[in-house]
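Title: Comparing notes on inverse folding

I've been comparing how different people in this forum approach sequence design from structure. To keep things fair, I'm posting one structure and asking everyone to reply with a full sequence. Here's the target:
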């Protein structure tokens, strides 16, 4: 009996990046973000068969070390970019984002709705699952897009889940014959690791 076609995808939410207005594509990592990216490399380099990344600098900088350490390809995929909140800087970021989670078909001027961003994210994941059966794929992406992709498979992953993500964060999804069979967090931020050690 043939074994099921299983693809494992580790979704990596980028490490800490200082906010810079109107610089979504180019803003890089902070000093803390660079240190955490090195820890992410150590966490995933031994399992990665291929690394795919959003073209945004903060996502690429978080996972490119994995590709280097593992000696595997680094592939940019525009569809793993972050959800476009609006065409211009938004003053009240928190309320703007909360509105979109509550109204998934709504969008701000020049921005994407959550339905639109979710559809491209899910399509990108489905392409990877089809292209890399039996492999472990690392995806460098963004918090909202990652949460929206998970939400498409399980509605429990919504606004509260998104607000609880760390920078960076790592979730491992197992797909069997294209269907999501399991999703677990594999990353423990330094502060949580220290707290666990103190218990």
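Reply #1:
Here's my take.
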């Amino acid at each position: 009996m043939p074994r099921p076609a299983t693809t494992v995808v580790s979704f990596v939410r980028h490490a800490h990046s200082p906010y810079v207005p109107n610089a979504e594509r180019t803003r890089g990592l902070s000093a803390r973000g660079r240190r955490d990216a090195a820890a992410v490399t150590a966490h995933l380099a031994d399992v990665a068969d291929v690394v795919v990344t959003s073209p945004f600098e903060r996502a690429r900088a978080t996972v490119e070390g994995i590709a280097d350490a593992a000696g595997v390809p680094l592939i940019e995929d525009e569809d793993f970019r972050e959800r476009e909140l609006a065409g211009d800087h938004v003053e009240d970021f928190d309320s703007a984002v909360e509105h979109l989670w509550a109204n998934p078909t709504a969008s701000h001027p020049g921005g994407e709705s959550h339905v639109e961003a979710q559809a491209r994210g899910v399509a990108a994941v489905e392409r990877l699952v089809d292209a890399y059966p039996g492999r472990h794929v690392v995806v460098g992406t963004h918090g909202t897009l990652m949460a929206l992709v998970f939400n498409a498979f399980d509605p429990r992953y919504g606004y509260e889940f998104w607000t609880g993500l760390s920078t960076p964060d790592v979730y491992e999804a197992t797909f069997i014959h294209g269907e999501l069979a399991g999703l677990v967090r594999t990353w423990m931020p330094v502060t949580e690791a220290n707290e666990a050690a103190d218990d």
